[in-house]
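Re: the request from the purification team.
They wanted to know what the chain is likely to look like in 3D before they choose a buffer screen. I agreed to run a prediction and write the result into the notebook, where they can find it.
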Amino acid sequence: MNAHDMLPDRPRVLAIANQKGGVGKTTTAINLGTALAAIGETVLIVDIDPQGNASTGLGVEREIGAVSAYDVLLGDVPLAKAANETAVPRLHIVPSTLDLLGVELEIASMPDRNYRLRKAVAGLRDRAGAFDAVTDFSYVLVDCPPSLNLLTINAMAASHAVLVPLQCEFFALEGLSQILSTVERVRSGLNPQLGIHGIVLTMFDGRNKLSSQVVDDVRAHMGDTVYRTVIPRNVRVSEAPSHGKPALLYDLRCAGSQAYLRLASEIIQRERMLRAA
């Protein structure tokens, strides 16, 4: 790896990953991105999940032949050129298309197959190391597929840290051990600076004793790695994607939207602490 391939200090790149489906990963990508934009950050979501739920959840049509994360990973289109504006000011998205289903086979034989996304992120800077005003993103959030495949490895190799959504359910800790092992393998082999930014507990139901027990267990095992903010199970958050809107645009006052605003503030606070360390 040469200097051009090293991760830039800005933007901060966070992979939102969990090998389990249905844990609120894409919901977190959409609504955290929106919340960060709402408090003044400039955010790019990169949707590398072939299901493309982050794209449709932000109202971006997945048209056949449209420029997408597939073109970025193949190196045909720069990351900034693939970014679409959304209805949220300061929030852009590089959409997913079904082409991503085959991209692993296409890049598998490339010597830099694990670093395709990292190179794309590095390309946000010009040769002088400066950022274009239009693409001066402070955060890049990578929405990963619900599996530990080459796309997820690309996301982790391109990221400063991983944000892990964890559903408040019985097997939460078992699933967590798998993602932590993967992060450790990527850190030791591909990206020495990769760390866990935090674990966000999702779909919390205060009426369910099991949810509270999961919260206690995860905090007991992982300590301060777990964000203070817990995302509640919320009907309005679940409804929002069908309208092509993040929850914060669909219903700002609902409990889920307010939780994601708190999470965004907590992430900014952690970032400040990391820079001061």
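For the purification team: Residues 3-276 form a domain with the Rossmann fold fold (CATH 3.40.50.300).
Please add any questions underneath this entry.
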